[in-house]
């Protein structure tokens, strides 16, 4: 796994590209393992929930959590479809 590609994916929040191009020989995030990405995403979600007890009351935080949940669900689907 290339750490720079993983960091770029998270900093750019470029999940649509990652999910659309996954498995292609020339994809931008070729070296990012979906299991690693999912693990890191879930750690972010857990940390965010622990640090923001009242986060569910702020629309911004709720939207961010929904987006993280959606990406995590898509990653799980990607993992199960490529590992079965």
UniProtKB/TrEMBL annotation:
One of its GO terms (biological process) is intracellular protein transport. One of its GO terms (cellular component) is membrane. This is Exocyst complex component 6.
């Amino acid at each position: 796994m290339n750490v720079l590609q993983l960091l770029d994916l998270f900093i750019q929040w470029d999940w649509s590209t990652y999910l659309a191009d996954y498995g292609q020989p020339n994809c931008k995030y070729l070296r990012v393992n979906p299991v690693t990405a999912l693990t890191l995403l879930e750690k972010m979600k857990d940390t965010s929930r622990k640090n923001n007890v009242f986060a569910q009351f702020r629309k911004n935080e709720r939207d961010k959590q929904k987006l993280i949940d959606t990406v995590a669900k898509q990653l799980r689907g990607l993992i199960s479809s490529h590992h079965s």
